[in-house]
């Protein structure tokens, strides 16, 4: 659905999801301000938008106040993979919490609708399966993943308190594992790791016994859901789970990637990291009902597109 042209702020807009969101918002005819401190994002992800008359890039850290004039805010700024968010855990919590406060303060002043990229990690290592939005989670508050999980939980608290206390129009999505072009080749996430390893014919690193499960959503499906949530009627606060309920073991994923790349890689087994959840699968009943949304891209097709992206990236980085 096309809407009247809006001024839209996207924090974390040079990242994996943020850059796809900027593409979509520009294509829909909006003016986009992309804010990023390039902690994990890169200008390459948005290079094609630089110079576009409706696109503007601001280097800025969301832990500091930001004064701009916009109609809508999408708050995505935060490192998302364990390797990156554990690199500077204090900064990770600050980004989630101070970032949320600043963006909510901005939304409050402007009476702007604001979206929060929350995460399935708010459920921790779940003891309910699949996870619906009323499940309260099983998070270790002092473990190595806590800077991310608890930071995102606190951000959700802030969003709902700004909503109740100040009437801010909020949209909170709990995003499950998402993959696609522009994932970082070195951020340790399982889809990018396996594809890069397979394309190099290097050993595929399975952590644990490979029987833990994840559900993988292709990026285009996810962006569609985010925009639908933002366009849903007043009062659609969420939280709403967004993800693909197809559940696969990590071993199955490795086999698929090897099959699709025709790789000679062998499987090697590594220890399971601390607090690594054994099972994760979204219950997306609420997203189906509220947004009329359903993920469309099957894992095989999404992997093929992602493999093509990484093959090009590696060919450019490692010619010959
Ligand atoms: P990403 O690392 O590619 O993008 C995050 C972006 O935020 C990067 O461009 C980074 O430079 C920027 N950033 C980090 N700290 C910042 C700060 N203090 N100020 C300004 N910019 C900052 O990760 P992504 O996968 O695109 O994730 C985007 C959002 O979605 C994150 O909030 C993440 O928690 C959430 N999310 C992602 C997934 C997933 O599977 N990709 C799953 C759940 C939630
Ligand atoms: N803020 C911002 N941009 C704005 C308005 C507010 O970055 O346009 C920040 C501001 O620095 C403040 C935070 O958002 O620290 C929270 O704002 P709020 O109005 O809720 O709190 P207060 O200003 O009363 O502390
Ligand atoms: N994983 C793996 N090999 C890798 C990277 C990850 O087996 O090279 C596993 C990891 O232990 C976890 C799953 O794949 O069980 C998903 O990991 P990822 O970091 O992508 O996402 P998250 O744990 O945040 O869901």
SSE arrangement:
Elements: E1 7-11, H1 16-27, E2 31-36, E3 55-59, E4 72-75, H2 82-85, H3 89-110, E5 113-119, H4 146-166, E6 170-175, E7 178-179, H5 190-199, E8 204-207, E9 213-215, E10 217-218, H6 219-231, E11 240-242, E12 247-249, H7 250-261, E13 267-270, H8 285-291, H9 299-317
Parallel strand pairs: 1-2, 1-4, 2-3, 4-5, 5-6, 6-11, 7-10, 8-13
Antiparallel strand pairs: 9-12
Helix pairs in contact: 1-6, 3-4, 5-7, 5-9, 7-9
Explain what the structure shows.
The strands form four sheets. Strands 3-2-1-4-5-6-11 form a seven-stranded parallel sheet, with helices on both faces. It contains nine helices and 13 strands. It is globular, with a radius of gyration of 19 Å. It has helices at 16-27, 82-85, 89-110, 146-166, 190-199, 219-231, 250-261, 285-291, 299-317, and strands spanning 7-11, 31-36, 55-59, 72-75, 113-119, 170-175, 178-179, 204-207, 213-215, 217-218, 240-242, 247-249, 267-270. Bound molecules: nicotinamide-adenine-dinucleotide and uridine-5'-diphosphate (2 copies). Residues 81-82, 177, 188-190, 193, 205-207, 212, 214, 250, 272-273, 276 line the site of one uridine-5'-diphosphate.
Overall outline: globular
Compounds present? nicotinamide-adenine-dinucleotide, uridine-5'-diphosphate
Structural classification: alpha/beta
Q: For the largest beta sheet, what order do the strands appear in spatially?
A: 3-2-1-4-5-6-11
Give the integer mean of the pLDDT values. Answer: 96
State the separation between the terminal residues, measured CA to CA: 45 Å
Low-confidence stretches: none
What does the largest sheet look like? 7 strands, parallel
The helix/strand series, from N terminus to C terminus, equals: EHEEEHHEHEEHEEEHEEHEHH
Kindly state the percentage of residues in helix. Answer: 25-40%
Quote the beta fraction: 15-25%
Question: What's the CATH topology label of the domain at 7-179 and 217-245 and 281-297?
Answer: Rossmann fold
Architecture per CATH nomenclature, i.e. the level-2 architecture of the domain at 7-179 and 217-245 and 281-297: 3-Layer(aba) Sandwich
User: Number of DSSP helices?
Assistant: 9
How many E-type strands? 13
Organism: Rhodospirillum centenum (strain ATCC 51521 / SW)
EC number: 4.2.1.46
Main location: cytoplasm
Protein name: dTDP-D-glucose 4,6-dehydratase, putative
């Amino acid at each position: 659905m096309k809407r009247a042209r809006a001024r839209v702020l996207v924090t974390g807009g040079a990242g994996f999801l943020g850059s796809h969101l900027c593409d979509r918002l520009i294509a829909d005819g909006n003016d986009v301000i992309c804010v990023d401190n390039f902690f994990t994002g890169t200008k390459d992800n948005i290079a094609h938008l630089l110079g576009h008359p409706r696109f503007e890039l601001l280097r800025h850290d969301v832990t500091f106040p930001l004064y701009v004039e916009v109609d809508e805010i999408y708050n995505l700024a935060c490192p998302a993979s364990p390797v990156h968010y554990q690199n500077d855990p204090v900064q990770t919590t600050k980004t989630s919490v101070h970032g949320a406060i600043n963006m909510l303060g901005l939304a409050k002043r402007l009476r702007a609708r604001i979206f929060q990229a929350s995460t399935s990690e708010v459920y921790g290592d779940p003891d309910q399966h699949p996870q619906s939005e009323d499940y309260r989670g099983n998070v270790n508050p002092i473990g190595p993943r806590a800077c991310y999980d608890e930071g995102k939980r606190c951000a959700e608290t802030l969003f709902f308190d700004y909503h109740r206390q100040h009437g801010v129009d909020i949209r909170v999505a709990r995003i499950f594992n998402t993959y696609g072009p522009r994932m970082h080749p070195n951020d340790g996430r399982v889809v990018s790791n396996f594809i890069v390893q397979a394309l190099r014919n290097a050993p595929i690193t399975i952590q644990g016994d490979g029987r833990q499960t994840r559900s993988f959503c292709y990026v285009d499906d996810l962006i569609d859901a985010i925009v639908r949530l933002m366009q849903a009627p007043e009062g659609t606060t969420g939280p709403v789970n967004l993800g693909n309920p197809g559940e696969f073991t990590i071993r199955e994923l490795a086999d698929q990637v090897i099959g699709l790349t025709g790789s000679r890689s062998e499987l090697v087994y590594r220890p399971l990291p601390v607090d690594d959840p054994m099972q994760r699968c979204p219950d997306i009943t609420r997203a189906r009902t509220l947004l009329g949304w359903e993920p469309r891209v099957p894992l095989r097709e999404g992997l093929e597109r992602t493999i093509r992206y990484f093959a090009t990236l590696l060919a450019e980085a490692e010619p010959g």
